[in-house]
Amino acid sequence: MMSVHHTIEQMLQHKIQHDQLTLPTLPEVALKVRQRSAEQDISLPQMADVISQDPALAARMIKVSNSAFMGRSIKVSTLNQAVTRIGLSQIRNIAIAMALEQVFVSRHKQVQQHLDNLWQNSVQVAAIAAATFSYYTSHVPGTGLNKDVLTLMALVHNIGAMPVLTEAERNEDLLGDPRFLVNLADQLAPQISARILYAWGFAELFVQAALNWRIAKPEQPGPGYTDFIRLAVMAQGNYADANLQQRLLNYYLQCGVIPQTDFMQHPDIQQCYQDVRAIFS
User: Which residues form the HDOD domain (predicted)?
Assistant: First the structure.
């Protein structure tokens, strides 16, 4: 079995090095939103027209605009109202975040299960990161960071695992040992994430977060986006080194980033976490 695993790993490494791995592409509507949002004279009704081309995304944008995430209590019922409420400055990141789930698709039932797990884990990380960030910025204003940027960044922090999982559609040996497949995808994800995010035209900040969230080294000066993604991963118990995780938590506690080491038990963070999760349900 070890020799089979080694052969598969070598095959994937070869594909990565020679740009032969099939990378996911952004949904067409996400590309259009990004393209149009870069136009200086784009109007809110024009942006609503772009989003309306994808009914599922349009429904999600109305849901976001009515959510506690946006901090509004008066409900809107039309896409134009939703886009106006969200505003052009946030619409790009939020629309791409809402469209991203369309990427996590496979015709292969077993592979689809892996992709569903990857997406749900990404949503979980995004919700925890956004909730922790909201708590921090309620006590420390003027950080220069944006919640919608962080949410999108958290959703793509491990996007590089996807091509490894979808490679199993073409190589049945990868499906024979699900744990090996998931571990291999996790191991290869950082370098593949960087390639995907560059191909998608994402800012360097996104690439650096994907490369560095596993590294147990807080941003200096900080906190930065990667710190909140790192905290979300720790909240899920996904750091292998328990002692290192505790030292990191103590550091973030001392810096005032979190109110307590078991920060997900804090009522304000837990409420915000539930609010963000609700957007993706």
Answer: 23-216
Q: Minimal CA–CA distance to 12: which of 158, 164, 162, 114?
A: 164
Is the whole-model pTM more than 0.85? yes
- Please report where in the chains the tokens 């490369």 appear, as a residue: 211
Would residue 36 count as lying in a domain? no
- Residue 179 belongs to what domain range? 2-21+103-280
> Is residue 26 situated within a structural domain?
no
Residue 221: cis peptide before it, omega within 30 degrees of 0: yes
pLDDT digits over 5-50, tens only? 677 788 888 888 888 888 899 999 999 999 998 898 999 999 999 9
Cis, bond preceding 223 (omega within 30 deg of 0)? yes
Q: What is the percent of the chain with per-residue pLDDT over 90, rounded to a whole number? A: 66
CA 163 to CA 94: how far, in whole Å? 24
How far is the C-alpha of 65 from the C-alpha of 76, rounded, in Å? Answer: 7
Q: How would you class 163 by CB atoms within 10 Å of its CB: exposed for 0-12, middle for 13-18, buried for 19 or more?
A: buried
Number of domains in the chain: 1
Give residue-wise pLDDT tens across range 130-175: 999 999 999 998 889 999 999 999 999 999 999 999 988 887 777 7
- The closest of 250, 229, 268 to 139, measured between CA atoms, is 268
